[in-house]
Model the fold of this input.
Amino acid sequence: MINLKVVSPQKVIFEKEVEMAVLPGAEGDFAAMENHSPFISSLRPGQMAIMANNQLQESFFVSGGLVMLKDKTCEVLVDQIESLGEVNSSNYQQTKTYQELDGNETAQGTFEQVINSPSYK
Done:
């Protein structure tokens, strides 16, 4: 288990022990889990998946940010984040996150892709 802490500029979004978090790193997706080598990476827009027993527990869209993994702690600093629990192909454009990405067509397109074809289900 690792302690995952996700922080936006406004508040702590998520903090609890998890088995694994799959994050959209700048060089590709990676799994943060117990005994992972320490590192720091930037995040690209994409899906962040919280997994347990190879099953998706929670899912978020992140617009970018930074992640630091050390010992049993994974700290994720995000620009914008949206829980995907209640978001679907008919309402994602009304979310605060999607609207705040106005002008960033790449991130908006990635948000749409995550909604319509998530990497982790």
Q: What stands out?
A: The radius of gyration is 14 Å. The chain has one domain: 2-116. The first strand starts at residue 2 and ends at 7. DSSP finds two helices and ten strands in the chain.
